[in-house]
Amino acid sequence: MADRGPRLGARVLDSIAALVLVIAALVVLGDGERPYAGLAIAWFVVWAYDALTTACLGATPGKLLVGLKVVALDQTGRVPPATAAKRGAVDAAFTVLPVIGWGIWLSSTLTGALGRGVADRAAVTMVVPKATALPIASADLAGYADGARAPRRSRFGRVGDLDVRARARLRRLVDAPLLAAAIGLLALAVSLPFSTALLIVGSSVAWVVLFVLDETRRVHRTGTTAGHRLAGLVIRDGRTGQPPSTGRSFARALVLGLTLYVPPLWLILGLPSVLMIRFGETGRGLHDLAGGTWVVADPTLDPELQRQRSMRMRLGQAAT
Question: pLDDT tens across 119-174, in order?
Fold first, then answer.
């Protein structure tokens, strides 16, 4: 697997090269004073830089300079042009958004066991050292992940990894039509021409309350959510090894809701939780500590089946 240091160095080098090209394009085309046109030009230039170099050279110049290459899973040879174009489109979108885009790239690339960012998952690719033998089989990724990061264990079983838990959380609405409807209403409230700050804040508070109540009920009754089930994970009370009590489920859901849906608290609650789950020996975030819970592999599943579910979640191939 490619180390994080070279990946970050390659990103910086490519960003500098892309910035020079974008500035040149804006000077030539004269759209620097029109923000949306300038953003579109920047995206196109970065996309062309990423896609063409990956398809023709096997990686962007920054990656080549630090000894890395891009490979398509289950294939030999260079990345196909269509795959390079798809990967470049996603990467360019993150590059031209310097704060949000870079944050997403850092969190997805540097926290996963395999270092596969959003662009890699979208294009089914992987960044590896130049000397890596091909092909890299998708079926072998679970073993690579365990080799890159030794599994953490608790008395309840294998601890869930950050990247798997994060993707499981994104599938939270799979069997929650009420929450899905609430999100639609919240989006409507924000977009209405007569919306006021009070209406938007009130709608947001109502969403958090609804999320906390729904999360509490599901975790207490089943010890899982739809996303957890798809990833082969369960939530367990640290005292009993069973689904947590109503009180503990509520405490967990409240801290989780504030962490996920209150932007001013992202640095206070969100960042520490991410670091704790990623690097801590127990793999528990602040919401786990608040509820006294652990997120672990489902003990009722065959270990190999659980590992396969976890890897499918990593690859974005979790079946409903």
Answer: 998 899 999 999 888 888 887 776 676 666 678 999 999 999 988 898 898 888 77
Q: Do 69 and 63 touch, CB atoms closer than 8 A? A: yes
232 φ/ψ sector (left φ>0, alpha ψ -120 to 50, else beta): left
Burial class (CB in 10 A: 0-12, 13-18, 19+), 30: exposed
Encoded tokens for 12: 């910086």
CA–CA separation, 156 and 44 (whole Å): 49
Give the span between the Cα atoms of 239 and 31, in whole angstroms: 62
Q: Is 3 exposed, middle or buried (0-12, 13-18, 19+ CB in 10 A)?
A: middle
Token representation of residue 110: 């540097």
State how far the Cα of 285 lies from the Cα of 255, in Å rounded to an integer. Answer: 10
Q: How far apart are CA 237 and CA 243, in angstroms?
A: 6
Q: Give the separation between CA 161 and CA 166, rounded to whole angstroms.
A: 9
* pTM (predicted TM-score): 0.69
Please name the residues in contact with 102: beta carbons below 8 A apart, sequence gap of 6 or more.
94, 95
CA 114, chain centre distance (Å): 12
Tell me the pLDDT tens digit for each residue of 277-307: 988 989 999 999 999 999 999 999 998 888 8
The ranges assigned to domains in the chain are 4-148, 153-315
Q: Which segments within 191-292 are labelled E, that is strand?
A: 233-237
